[in-house]
Amino acid sequence: MSQLMIVACPHCHRKNRIEAARLDESPRCGVCKAALFMGEPVDLDSGSFNSHAGSDLPLVVDFWAPWCGPCRQFAPTFAKAAGELEPRVRLAKVNTEEQQALASRFGIRSIPTLLIMRGGKELARVAGAMPPGQFIQWVNQQLG
Ligand SMILES: [Zn+2]
């Protein structure tokens, strides 16, 4: 008997209930039928954020802005990490320029800021970009 998990869809953002043991069997969304995992970060706004932050799947958020050089440098590292960390973790990006309500809700003072959420709670955060290996190590450390 496998544990049921709530996982938000990266396309329609509706919450799905799926067996934890079936996470790596390319599950599809029960609502929009699209793949629940794409191997790439999902862009979130204030309408879709809570659905993902409140799911049982850990959410790693990159708070960034288009004018931020270190953010742009870190983007490929973050995108590639999605392929390695899914389906244990969901990676998401929040453009703080467009989503100022989210940036202020989390008190983002410098970018990039990386935040890990699960079940609606913040588990960890760090300010500043990291090299690829260090980033994946940091995520794994926070999630034990
Ligand atoms: Zn969907």
UniProtKB/TrEMBL annotation:
Signal peptide: none annotated. The keyword Electron transport applies. InterPro entries: Thio2_N, Thioredoxin, Thioredoxin-like_sf, Thioredoxin_CS, Thioredoxin_domain. Pfam families: Thioredoxin, Zn_ribbon_Thio2. It comes from the Bacteria. Belongs to the thioredoxin family. The keyword Metal-binding applies. It comes from Halopseudomonas salina. This is Thioredoxin. Keywords: Disulfide bond, Electron transport, Metal-binding, Redox-active center, Transport.
